[in-house]
Amino acid sequence: MKHLLKLEDWSTDEIINTLNLADQLKYEQKHGIEHKILAGKTLGMIFEKSSTRTRVSFEVGMTQLGGYPLFLSSNDLQIGRGEPVQDTARVLSRFLDGIMIRTFKQEEVEALAEYGSIPIINGLTDYCHPCQVLADLMTIREFKGKLEGLKMCFIGDGNNMMNSLIVGALSTGMSFSAACPKGYMPPEHIIEFGKKYGNGKFEIVEDPMEAAKNAGARDMIVLNEALAAAIGAGLPVSDPVGNMVVDIGGGTTDSAVVVLGGIACHKSVRTGGTYIDKAIVEYIARRSKPSIGERTAEQIKLTLGSALMGGDEHMEVRGRSMIPGCPKA
Question: Rounded to two decimals, what is the model's pTM?
């Protein structure tokens, strides 16, 4: 019986075989070919952390495969209200054919696998996000035609996404360049996992410029809140050129729009602060003609409220297009 608890547990062949199967199922779905390979099967979906995309994708996917998705919120279960996870695992194993769980602690996912008797899928924990990274690898391969020999760049905190991207990229023959603030590095064993691939395959630095350029970016422009507000207000600022934009708000990386080798991808690193306007993405798309991966590109919304102009004076910029001439988000 095979679980998906974290990508470190999977071999390269297992990852590639999964991507191959996903490609085949996507082709069949697109061409109206039924693939009810999970007919009669029920997947329990435990959501201790809510999510739009995870719930919709698993429910739709399970339905397309002929199975039945059963949504279980934390309010529906005794887990977390005194019942040990071991008991929950044993009880659900009697009724279900598999469990997908989106929760906080990785230990909870591991315990379900240890004490249950059905496959367990990690829909997200604070430690890793294997399903998301498998989808990212699928999209990269779809647009680039391969994974082997490519280089991935990640800019942000050493969070669950970075942990899984490091493992997924290196396991499939990619190299990995990361920029992470001091004090927010990924766990030491993840760094050691990367180091075992040798120099030139893995690096982690503190400077986002260095990581981006080492990953093959032609240029990188850092927009702080004042500059972003100035662009939004139509003040005379030189047009951004290049293929990477990173918005630094409040001294931390809020989000990044990355265009490397024809793929644009937006990742929210923090939920607060300033988000990059969708207009920037559209502007870059028109200028550098990248292809936006439908599975990895995120919808980007403008949430700028005001920017400090000096002293206590603020300039209202809400709803303004970030780059003159671009459609408003």
Answer: 0.70
- What pLDDT, on the 0 to 100 scale, is given for residue 209? 76
What residues have CB less than 8 Å from 49, skipping those under 6 apart?
Answer: 102, 103, 104, 124
Q: What is the pLDDT of residues 150-170, one digit of tens each?
A: 989 888 889 999 999 999 999
* 188 burial level (CB within 10 Å; 0-12, 13-18, 19+): exposed
Going by the DSSP 8-state scheme, the letter that residue 5 receives in this structure is S
Q: Which pLDDT tens digit goes with each residue over 261-294?
A: 434 333 333 322 334 444 444 554 555 444 433 2
**What DSSP string describes 75-130?**
TTSSBTTTB-HHHHHHHHHHH-SEEEEE-S-HHHHHHHHHH-SS-EEEEE-SS--H
User: How many Å separate Cα 108 from the centre of its chain?
Assistant: 21
Contacts of residue 314, defined as CB under 8 A and 6 or more positions apart, other chains included, come to: 306, 307, 308
Q: Tell me the sheet residues that pair with 246.
A: 222, 256
Instruction: Please compute, for residue 75, the number of CA atoms within 13 A of its CA located in the half-sphere on the CB side.
Output: 1
The structure tokens listed for 254 are 């809020």
Q: Phi/psi of residue 290, each to 5°?
A: -80, 165
